[in-house]
Structure formats: C-alpha cells, structure tokens
Amino acid sequence: MLLLLIGVNSYESAQPPSGTPSLREEASQAGILIGTAVRSDQLSEQAYASTLAREFNMIEAEDAMKWWAVRPARDTFDFGQADRIVDFAQAHGMQVRGHTLVWGRSNPSWVTEYRDPQALHSVLQDHIRKVAGHFRGKVFAWDVVNEAFDEKGRLRSTIWYDQPGIGFAGQSTKYIEQAFGWAHEADPDALLFYNDAEGEGMNAKSDAIYAMVKDFRSRGVPIDGVGLQIHIFDRQPDLAGIEANIARFTSLRVQVHITEMDVALPTNTEGTVSDSKDLEKQAEIYRAVARICVNHPGCTAIQTWGFTDKYSWIRSTTKGAKGVALLFDRDYRPKPAYFGLRSALSEVRGLPRSAAK
Ligand code: XIL
C-alpha cells in the first residue's frame, strides 16, 4: 500500500523526489546491473540522455548492432550508431550489452538472398569475428544467438539454421554451438548469452533452451548465460514459472539476465492508458519480476526494452491497442512502475553476486 501511495504522489514530478536514490544507485547497492535498450538518435535529446545517465548503469543498442544496421552491404561494416552508444556508456560509467550476432530477423536482403550454405557459413563467421572483434573490451556480454526456438521447443527455420546447418545432423543445435565458439575466439573475455522470448516460465521452449544449455555446459561450449526477454502482454503473468525457470538455469551455473522487460497495457486511441489502475498492476509486475531476480544471486542484470513511453517498440506492434509499457512516461516522469522496480532493488543488499566471468 505504501508503495502505491509513493508511486501515485511522485508520478506528478518530472524527476524522482530529490534526495531519493536513482535506480542505478539502488542497483549498485544490491550488486546488480540495471539496464535499458537505447536508440542512438535519441542520445542528443537532453531529457533522454540525462534520464538515461542518471538511472541506468548498463545499456544495449535496441537496433544499432543488428545485422541490418552494421552490414548495409556485404563488404561494408557501419559501426557509427553503435559506437555512439558505446561512447555514451563509457562517458557515463555504464556497461554495454551487445545484441545480437545471430538472429533469423533484422537481416539485410543481401544476406537473406544467399543460397550457398558454404558461402553463408563464411559470411557468418566473418561477421561474428569482425563485430565481436570491433567491440572487444567494450561490450561485456553478447547475445550471441537470439530467438532460435519456436514455442514448441523446435529449432526455428532461419537462414542460419537451414543453410549452415545443412551439414549438421537432423535437429541439431550445432550452428548455435559454432556461433558461440566463434564469438569466444573473437572476444575471450566477453560473457556469451543465448537470448529468447516467451521462454521465461516453465514451458516447451524453456525446456528446450534448458536442455541445450545443459548440454553445452557439459561439453565445455563457451556459454555463460541465458537472457530472458520478458516482454509481458498479460496483466497476470506466471511469476511462479519465471521463478522456477530462473532457479533451474542458475543451478546450471550460468548467469541469467532479464534482457528486454516491458509490461504492455491496454490503451485508448490516443495511446494513453485505458484504466489508470493498470499502472499499479504494472508496478506490481515490475516489482515482482525484479524481486525474483534479486533473490537469485545468479540473476545479475535487469534490463528494460527502452525506458520512456515516448520511444517504445510496443506502440508499433499489432497485439491490439497496447502501450505505456515502460518505467517513465512520455515526459520522462517516473511512473508507478519505476517505484515498484526500485523498491525491489532496495529490498536486497549485499547478496553474493558477480556479473564478471
Ligand atoms: C525490436 C526493436 O525494439 C524495434 O525497434 C525493431 O524494429 C524490431 O526489433 N526481441 C528482440 C529485439 O530480441 O531485438 C526486438 O527489438 C524485440 C523483440
């Protein structure tokens, strides 16, 4: 109840009440990283940049390290946008997560048009070497492979699975293993993650990811962590399932990062929340998920997919009229969600936790 009152009162002001700690201050007390996805174009917007630097100690490029951004053509690497994000992080004492080296989406057409498995294999190897090599020492953790499984726990058909996988036997995670090996060669100090959506709770997809990670760990494949995206579209998420899943992954001695959290709410046609009580429900969900993470020492980072409702991918999706999914409103005022998340961070201090390799 106290939380709700604090949340409602503070929602009116553009900044957290002066004298109260920021998210990043609470997070460093708790020994955890607090991050957000960022868009390089917005870094020149003063309110965006100052909120980002004040509240977060980790950032990830929302799009700027994806294939279509860094590989406009086969022989062209363009790190301009991504370097701006890395520079911002370095200027403000933030860690950088890299996202993502291998994904079935966000690929430029010159690569999806490839029909020769051997050539595609070389293109991927070269890409991982050059991109992870470029950011060596700057990116502390990579989402090496993103969203490789479908909801039934089967490997998705993508250019990477279908073509470099041709030489591999049957339903094999060999192409994923190979990508981790290449990433490790390019940057032996980076933490290497497998990242996915909708495998947050206990289900066929998370079972398949678990089996793969267990297999990789037993054979010494260089995987250090699992990213759980946690895009929530349901106001009653399965929190017990998320907890059980984080517990089983951390018991394999891999780290868990919450990588893309947002909590979409129904909106009216102007894009504002339909029922203001939902903002309190949203705060509870952020608090509950953060609390699960901080209670597991192996869960070492919580990241949201953007931080202001002004710039959120949720607005552009087609899952009904949904939006307002993040911690700050369009005017950079902290929402109840902000206070919910922060209160979970403040509850836990000094648990043994290490985000290092
Ligand atoms: C999204 C970005 O937010 C959008 O800007 C872009 O147009 C499409 O990709 N899972 C992921 C992210 O791993 O890379 C996606 O990001 C959201 C879903």
Structure report:
- Helix 3 (46-55) links the parallel strand 1 (33-38) and strand 2 (58-61).
- Strands 1-2-3-4-5-6-8-10 form an 8-stranded parallel beta barrel, surrounded by 6 helices. Strands 9-11 form a two-stranded antiparallel ribbon.
- The model is unreliable at 1-13 (pLDDT under 50).
- Helix 7 packs parallel to helix 9.
- With 357 residues, the chain is of the alpha/beta class.
- 39% of the residues lie in helices and 15% in strands.
- The protein has 13 helices and 11 strands.
- The protein has a single domain (2-355), classed as TIM Barrel (Alpha-Beta Barrel), CATH 3.20.20.
- The structure holds (3S,4R)-3-hydroxy-2-oxopiperidin-4-yl beta-D-xylopyranoside.
- (3S,4R)-3-hydroxy-2-oxopiperidin-4-yl beta-D-xylopyranoside binds at residues 62-63, 146, 197, 229, 260, 313.
CATH topological fold name = TIM Barrel
State the helical fraction.
Answer: 25-40%
Which ligands appear in the coordinates? (3S,4R)-3-hydroxy-2-oxopiperidin-4-yl beta-D-xylopyranoside
Q: Could you give the order of strands across the largest sheet? A: 1-2-3-4-5-6-8-10
Q: Tell me the Rg in angstroms.
A: 20 Å
Give a quick account of the main beta sheet: strands, pairing sense, barrel closure: 8 strands, parallel, barrel
What's the CATH H-level homologous superfamily? Answer: Glycosidases
Order of helices and strands: HHEHEHHEHHEHHEHEEHEEHEEH
CATH class: Alpha Beta
Described by the principal axes of the CA atoms, the overall outline is globular
Low-confidence parts? 1-13
**What is the average of the pLDDT values?**
91
What distance lies between the first and last C-alpha atoms, to the nearest angstrom?
39 Å
